[in-house]
Amino acid sequence: MTMSEMEKHPDSYMNDSPFINKLLIPKGNLTYEQVATQTLSPEEKKIINDFVYLLEKSKQLFQQLRHLPQHGHFNWQVHFSRTFDCFSKLWKFQQDHRGVLDMKYGLQRWQIGEIASRIGQLYYHYYLRTSDTNYLHEALIFYLAIRQRDYYTKFDSEEILVKKLRYYARFLVVSIMVNKMDLVLELKSELAGLIDDMSTEHNTQDVDEWKGILNEVTAFRNALCHLSVTRADTSGVTLSHRLISENVVLPETTLSPNPLKLQNALIVGTKSGQPKVTELSLDMYRIGSILEKNPKCLSALKNPIKQYLYKPSVRELMCSLAEMGNFLQRQSVQLIYLSDSHIIQLLDDPFIRLILLRFCLFTAVLQMHTAFKTEEYYPTSVPSLKFAEICSKPAVKRGIIDIANILESVVLFSAP
C-alpha cells in the first residue's frame, strides 16, 4: 500500500473534528499568549485546528496498534488501514499548509521528522505482519528521507534528543534487515556521536543503555560481515540469504497431486551468546531472510508469514503455536525453527516437567514389560528425547517393580 493509494481511502475525520471552534496548541509550540497576540484569519485558525486534530488522532491510532496481538486477530488490517489513512492525510496536510503552520503555529522540523518516523514504523510493522519486503523498503525510504532532510538537526531538549536516538535505532534495524551494511556503518558512527552528546550535554542516566544498544549493533554487523566475498576484479559482492530468480529451482512436474505450501513460520531464538539486535538474534535473522524472496523475484510467490520470539516463556511459545495454527489453511504447513543451547530449560516449567517425566516413565514401563519387546511400541518425540540412560537406572526399575507388586502384576515384568 503506497502513500498515493492510502490517500484514496474515504475519510470523515475532518468533518467530525471537535476542534473547529477551539484552538489547541500542544506543548513545544507557540503558547496561548503568543497565539493571542497574532491576528489569525478564520482560514488560518481552521488550518491549525485541523492539523492539531489530525496530529492527535494519528497518535491515538498509533497507540492502539500497540495493543494488538503479535499474530492472528482477524481485524488487524482494519486498524492498520485506519492508521495509515490518518498519517497519510496528516503528512499531506502539513505539506500543503507548511507556511501557515510554520509562521502561525510554530511547527518545528523535528515534529515533521516524528510524523515521518512513525510512518516508517507503520511500514516496518506491516512488514512484520505480512512478511512482504516491499513494506520493509518503504520504511527504509522514509527513514532515509528524514536523514537527508535533517529533520532532527536542531534540538534544544533531552526529550527531542531521545526521539532522535530512537529514530536511529529503528533506522539501524531496518537497514540491517535490507542488508545495507555500508549504511549501517554510517548510522552506527552517527549514533555514537549522538550518545556522546547525551553524555556531555545532558548528563542523563540512559547513556549506558544506549551504549549497550550501540555495542549490540556493532557485534551484529561484525558477525554478518565476518566473511567477505570478492570478484576477480576485487570488487565486493553483497551476500543475501533471500530467494532470487537465479537460485529458484522448480520441479518439471508436480511431485504430488496435493502439493503443500509453507504458510507460516515460527522462529524462536533462545541460544545464549549470539550477537543480537533488539529481540533478533543472528540465527533468527538468517533463518528469517531465507524465508523471504527478493521483491522482484517470482511475483506470484508469497513469503510465508513469520513470527519471531526471542527467549520466550513456555506459555508464550505455546500461545504463539496455537494462534498460528488457528489460521493455518488447508494444504498448508507451518515451519517451527528452534535454536537453543540447553532445550529451553523445559524442566523449569512444572507442566512440561510432568509431561516429560510421564514420557520417561511410560518408556521404562514398556521396556520392562514382557509383552512389548520391540521399539515400535515405545513412545517417540521430535526431536528425539534421549531417555535411555534414565530409564535404565536401577532406581527407576525398582520403582516400576514396586508399583507392579502393588498392582499384583509383577509377573508381566522382567526382573531389574
Describe it for me?
There is one protein chain. The chain is mainly alpha-helical. It has helices at 3-6, 32-36, 42-65, 76-96, 98-105, 109-130, 133-148, 158-177, 181-202, 207-224, 282-290, 314-326, 350-368, 388-391, 394-406; strands at residues 229-230, 236-237, 261-269, 276-277, 280-281, 305-310, 332-339. Helices cover 52% and strands 7% of the residues. The strands form three sheets. Strands 6-3-7 form a three-stranded parallel β-sheet, sandwiched between helices. Helix 3 packs antiparallel against helix 4 (76-96), helix 4 (76-96) runs antiparallel to helix 6 and helix 7 packs across helix 8.
What keywords describe this structure?
416 residues; two-stranded antiparallel sheet; three-stranded parallel beta sheet; mainly alpha; 7 strands
Summarize the structure.
The protein is mainly alpha-helical.
Secondary structure layout:
Elements lengths: L2 H4 L25 H5 L5 H24 L10 H21 L1 H8 L3 H22 L2 H16 L9 H20 L3 H22 L4 H18 L4 E2 L5 E2 L23 E9 L6 E2 L2 E2 H9 L14 E6 L3 H13 L5 E8 L10 H19 L19 H4 L2 H13 L10
Parallel strand pairs: 3-6, 3-7
Antiparallel strand pairs: 1-2, 4-5
N-C termini distance:
68 Å
Question: Which runs of at least 5 residues are low in confidence (pLDDT < 50)?
Answer: 1-27
Biggest pleated sheet: 3 strands, parallel
What is the residue-averaged pLDDT? 82
Per DSSP, the total helix count is: 15
- Shape type: elongated
> Radius of gyration from the CA trace?
29 Å
